[in-house]
Write a sequence for this structure.
């Protein structure tokens, strides 16, 4: 019980420290701008004007320099669901206060407040993790906090300082893998075998991805967010292909870890049931388990990437684009290489883990 409490405290500290560090990565806003929070009390009027609909809204300011005041705000809607933020009484919204040169100010609704619901969902996840997983759940929470810490404290700041995205991702992946496996399973033959298989699978996935990306001439600029990085205030000269490859490695890490530890755990149970089993038979048992796993895990990777690109695929189908035209688009080729590279690394994790487990487990005394 004490260990679980200690791990929970460490997890909270890591998460809080990472959140504070993430705030430090953000660029300071001009002094004339201030973010606020408020609650919509009433929509007093809604009228059409030119090509816009204007909501006249009464908002009580909950946080900021105007806290406690009730302000009347004009909310401009353009009938475009991507950019519009229509509100109704009871909605909690983010506001931007813009101070003008004459000392007056204007308030603009910039977004709905979603963090409270997200925090509640996170708390439900943590609660279920601890209730069902108990000590393993506390360890899992610690590894999640460590993963978040590595991403926010090591990877992202390092990339913004101009360090190699691939090198940072590989180092972070190694730390995350070793820490996750050893925290949850301890330091033993099973953990070492799983780590060796996972690292081997990731390295293979990285090499395949690098070769395939070079062959199909991926630019790394297929997403809108990547092109926006050209204009960030830090003025970092990113190699966008490196960023793409780093993202593929990180995206495959979770599935590869799952396969590696599953195969290693199954093989340890087989050896425990039959201590005299030969290395060849032990490898065969691991391969049989891995074959069952790899089908579902490969589907997991491919379905995850397909789900992310679903609106785009629907758009192509709606306009009867040919399969050849679709495959040759940079954005689609990127997702295909991402999914297939990760799946190849995942598949090769099975034999690598099986061989490593068989050798390490047979070296242990009965």
């Amino acid at each position: 019980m004490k260990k679980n409490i200690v791990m929970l405290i460490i997890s909270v500290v890591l998460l809080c420290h990472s959140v504070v560090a993430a705030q430090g990565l953000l660029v300071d806003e001009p002094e004339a701008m201030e973010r606020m929070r408020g609650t919509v009390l009433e929509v007093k009027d809604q009228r059409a004007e030119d090509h816009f609909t204007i909501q006249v809204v009464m908002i009580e300011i909950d946080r900021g320099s105007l806290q406690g005041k009730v302000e009347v705000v004009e909310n401009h809607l353009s009938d475009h669901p991507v950019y519009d933020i229509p509100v109704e009484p009871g909605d909690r919204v983010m506001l931007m206060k813009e101070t003008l040169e004459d000392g007056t100010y204007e308030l603009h609704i910039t977004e709905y407040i979603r963090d409270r619901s997200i925090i509640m969902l996170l708390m439900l996840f943590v609660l279920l993790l601890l209730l069902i997983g108990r000590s393993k759940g506390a360890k899992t929470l610690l590894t999640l906090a460590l993963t978040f810490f590595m991403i926010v404290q090591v990877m992202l700041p390092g990339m913004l300082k101009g360090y190699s995205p691939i090198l940072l991702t590989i180092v972070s992946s190694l730390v995350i893998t070793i820490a996750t496996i050893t925290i949850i399973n301890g330091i033993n033959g099973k953990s070492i075998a799983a780590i060796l298989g996972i690292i081997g699978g990731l390295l293979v996935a990285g090499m395949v991805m690098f070769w395939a990306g070079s062959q199909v001439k991926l630019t790394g600029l297929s997403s809108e967010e990547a092109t926006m990085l050209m204009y960030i205030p830090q003025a970092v000269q990113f190699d966008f292909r490196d960023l793409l490859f780093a993202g593929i490695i990180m995206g495959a890490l979770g599935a590869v870890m799952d396969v590696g530890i599953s195969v290693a755990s199954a093989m340890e149970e087989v050896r425990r049931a039959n201590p005299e089993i030969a290395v060849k038979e032990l490898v065969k048992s691991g391969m049989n388990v891995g074959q069952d796993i790899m089908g579902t895990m490969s589907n997991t990777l491919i379905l995850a990437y397909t789900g992310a690109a679903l609106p785009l695929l629907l758009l192509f189908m709606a306009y009867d684009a040919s399969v050849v035209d679709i495959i040759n688009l940079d954005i689609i080729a990127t997702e295909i290489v991402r999914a297939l590279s990760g799946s190849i690394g995942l598949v090769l994790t099975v034999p690598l883990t099986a061989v490593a487990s068989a050798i390490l487990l047979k070296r242990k005394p009965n």
